[in-house]
Write a structure and sequence with these properties.
elongated; 210 residues; Arc Repressor Mutant, subunit A; Tetracycline Repressor, domain 2; 9 helices
Amino acid sequence: MRPVTRRQTDRHAERSAATRARVIRTLGRLLDSGEAFSEISVQGIIEEAGVSRATFYAHFHGKSDVLVRLTDELRESLLALARQWDPGTGEDGADRFARFFEEVITIHRAHRSVLTAVREAASYDAAVGDFYAADLEGFDETVLRVLRSQQAAGVTPADVDAPVASRIIVWGGSQAIARHIAVDDGRGDAVFARELARIWWHGAFRRPAG
């Protein structure tokens, strides 16, 4: 038997990566076309992507696995954006928050079909539900870290229960953004971002000491 060379191994890895990418892009196209995730079958993905069933299952556990991988890069980009947020000094933090939320809403609108599918599937699919929860928990940890650093600096009151506040901020904010995008055509994005920012900033970060 001829030994497997590094070049052959690299080519196999490249083909596998290309196959995964093609299947992931296919699910994205199907969702963008208006199909509900619950109505998309593995067979439909296979036919649209032009791969065999054996090839599909060699790379994915099922269609939920494809959805998680489709969303993973988006999640990382949003989390990186959140981690860059800093209350700063010399400027109203609510204004900084408002700009941050406008960016978040823009990204959510651009990927609305995918994010809708994740929220839908999270209600009945354990794997997607775990992914969705882990996603929000990542944001929760980020907000909690900033709140505690602000308390340590003496600018956020010590009587703010930081873990509870961060949970309300992140989980409630996520639902509010999703609802806003569902009912608004985009013309109200700046106003929504401003109001959400002021609620966060004055309700937690700069709440009057009790």
